[in-house]
Design goal:
Blueprint: E1 2-9, E2 14-21, E3 26-30, H1 37-49, E4 53-58, H2 64-67, H3 70-77, E5 80-83, H4 88-100, E6 116-117, E7 123-126, E8 129-135, E9 144-148, E10 153-157, E11 160-161, E12 164-165, H5 175-185, E13 194-197, E14 203-204, H6 205-211
Parallel strand pairs: 3-4, 4-5, 5-6, 10-13
Antiparallel strand pairs: 1-2, 2-3, 7-8, 8-9, 9-10, 11-12, 13-14
The structure holds zinc ion (2 copies).
Amino acid sequence: MLKLEQFVFNPFSENTYVVYDDNTKECVIIDPGCSNAGEENQLFGFIDSHRLKPLMVINTHGHIDHVLGNAAVKRRYGTETSAHPDTESDFSQAKRHAVWLGLLPEGAADVELPDLDLKDGEIIKVGESTLEVICTPGHAEGSISLYAEIEGWVFTGDALFCRSIGRTDLPGGNYEKLRTSIKERLFHLPDDTTVFPGHGESTTIFDEQRYNMFLA
Ligand SMILES: [Zn+2]
Ligand SMILES: [Zn+2]
């Protein structure tokens, strides 16, 4: 069984997740959003004190609040970064946005394109467990969710939130696509699956099917 640790980082209050197997010590870092040394120390402190071995960074999509810490994690652990190939244009904008928002010093080469491409249905092994890539575009091009079947968890990035859904007014956003992603993909997961979104508190598939007004 996997365990997880959640951090809330950067001015966008983005959820960063460390998902790990306590026996093998393998871990992946989902959407490292750390934007300063203090936040990096929180993340690295957890990983180091638990003696975890980061396998890779997984980005649910390429928006700046989800990728700010990619380079810091790579520098420290040598891990590769993975995302869906359709995120490329968001990744290439992310650095510009970071500098513009004052989140990166001018000239810092701190947001890079991902090293590895993830595709729908791909299985990522973490210790004795797995994460399955589920394509859930609509909030952004190439948005993915990650489903841990044994644990009954799904990490939804900015596709599905507790009682809300991702905005669709940014480049690559598409409301119909997002509705389809949620209804045809996420809502087909078991009812008791816990949803860990990119912002805000966790929820379940059952509760969102019932109470999410944006999907009525
Ligand atoms: Zn986003
Ligand atoms: Zn976000």
